[in-house]
């Protein structure tokens, strides 16, 4: 039997994650049945669960994949850029939003999931905090507020934006709001207008 290349395995895993993201966003965790996952990915249950132990492992991998992508953006451009990207509609924001909302719901209702997710959820907070520390060292971040408070502030704004979008409220016009959020954490230099 021929061996399957790592590139092929990685591509198959990406196919499963991308299809599953759409399925979980559309139907929620409970509604994303194995049959629907098969339809969304174009693969059999055997192929799906060859890569993931069970549906929860698949969902956690998907949520972790999203968190890692966000952490990469945060490290390079900051948490406000993640919010701008969400408003701009890049890289399937509706599907990302669906996954994010499902994570929030499960955190509220499923203690076992909460325990498993706690191991993974720190990535975004860590990336935000490190970015803010670098900005403070560069003299770009206000120094009258603790970095942990600024981190919590930015995460709270993100959660508010997620809730706003989840309620179907308009995203148009929120760019200036994010400008204000950015301005709030910047260092104000004496004599600057």
Automatic annotation (TrEMBL):
It comes from the Bacteria. Residues 10-70 form the HTH tetR-type domain. Keywords: DNA-binding. This is Helix-turn-helix domain-containing protein. Residues 33-52 bind DNA. InterPro entries: DNA-bd_HTH_TetR-type_CS (IPR023772), Homeodomain-like_sf (IPR009057), HTH-type_TetR-like_transc_reg (IPR050109), HTH_TetR (IPR001647), Tet_transcr_reg_TetR-rel_C_sf (IPR036271). The keyword Lyase does not apply. PANTHER family: HTH-TYPE TRANSCRIPTIONAL REGULATOR RUTR, HTH-TYPE TRANSCRIPTIONAL REPRESSOR RV1474C. It comes from Amycolatopsis melonis. Pfam families: TetR_N (PF00440).
